[in-house]
Sequence to fold (204 residues):
Amino acid sequence: MRILVHDGFFSIQSLPSVDREEREGYSLTPASRLLLKEESLNITPLFLVFLDPIMLDPWQNMSKWLRNENDINPFQTTHGKMAYELAVEDPKLYQSINEGMASDGRLVASVILKHCKGIFEELDSVVDVGGGTGTFAMCIAEAFPNLSYINFDLPQVVKGLEGSKNLSFVGGDMFETIPKAQAVLFKVFIPYYTCLLTLKSLII
Ligand SMILES: C[S@@+](CC[C@H](N)C(=O)[O-])C[C@H]1O[C@@H](n2cnc3c(N)ncnc32)[C@H](O)[C@@H]1O
Fold:
């Protein structure tokens, strides 16, 4: 509990004393409130993805991954493929990852719309590369009706998804080509891979 308090996940509060004895209790903080079911910006689905053994097992293979030149990340070392490749073969995993990313998309969009609206205000068009099933895209496209928003992801991910007046879903492989737009957005995608690869190159 002390670690969680230190990390700001819980706070310590003084409780009314009993028999003149000082007492302390734990209370929720804005961070832990995000795990409450009744919170509209609840990110429990994202935590459930991280706690899935499929996602936890790669932590056991960090040293194997570091010694292996070819694997991009420990997930690939453990499962032989990337998470999104495994997910398209496993409907349960696919649904849980999508729900997790959707909860993150809602939270991040709400923070951006509250504090960093300027990012999108000046733009005519944006392509969200690796945008997944588009929860973040929908929030932003709805808030900026004059912004043309392209949610770009692998064909099997965006297949059958319906856009709106200013939101389109485009399938493709970013290593081949990406649709043209004034700005390119990467959310929870390139930074993750870049961090891991940088980490690996620093350690090896
Ligand atoms: C970690 S998810 C991030 C999803 C979304 N940006 C978000 O934050 O909710 C990474 C996404 O990248 C997509 N992706 C992986 N390789 C890709 C490629 N070569 N071209 C386009 N999208 C790709 C995956 O299908 C997945 O939806």
